[in-house]
Design goal:
CATH superfamily: Dihydrofolate Reductase, subunit A
CATH class: Alpha Beta
Number of strands: 10
Helix content: 10-25%
Largest sheet: 8 strands, mixed
Number of domains: 1
CATH topology: Dihydrofolate Reductase, subunit A
Shape: globular
Structural class: alpha/beta
Number of helices: 5
Distance between the termini: 18 Å
Amino acid sequence: MRKVILDLAVTLDGFIEGPNGEIDWCIMDEDIGFETFLEDIDAIFYGRVSYDLWGKYQPDENATLAEKKISQEIQDKKKYVFSKTPKEDSEVTYISTEIAAQVNEIKSQPGKNIWLYGGASLVTTFINLNLVDVYRLAVHPVILGAGKPLFSDIRDRVNLTLNEVKSHPSGLILLSYSRKSDS
């Protein structure tokens, strides 16, 4: 069965954005294995705001060849947008009701893994519905002191098993955890 993988950048103090939505603290470490991650997925789950901001992102003409390649790989994935107010958009599938049932149906279909991109509200919903299988977090060597927290309003404890820890010369640490089974 396909897995839902939460893959996000986070600061050491647990924020995914600064107080004004800034993400300038993100290190674009080339050795983080993001290209390999993209090869292992064929679909992306977005919240509406995240999709509006990043779902159709195209790098400008000054972007590196690698940035353009990654952007195209992301654009080639099947996109699902979770929203209470679906829009007309032939490039995505909107999901607004029965989230757990629909996600489990998608997971049972043939294909590769699924990237849970976010935003924070969607991540919370997925965690509370026990839909995240793998937590892949790129912890950046910065403390913001304020901003949008990665985890908030989580109803129940989530026990995890460490899969991998990878450190990089930039100070970035890549952590991968799987959800422990309920047995």
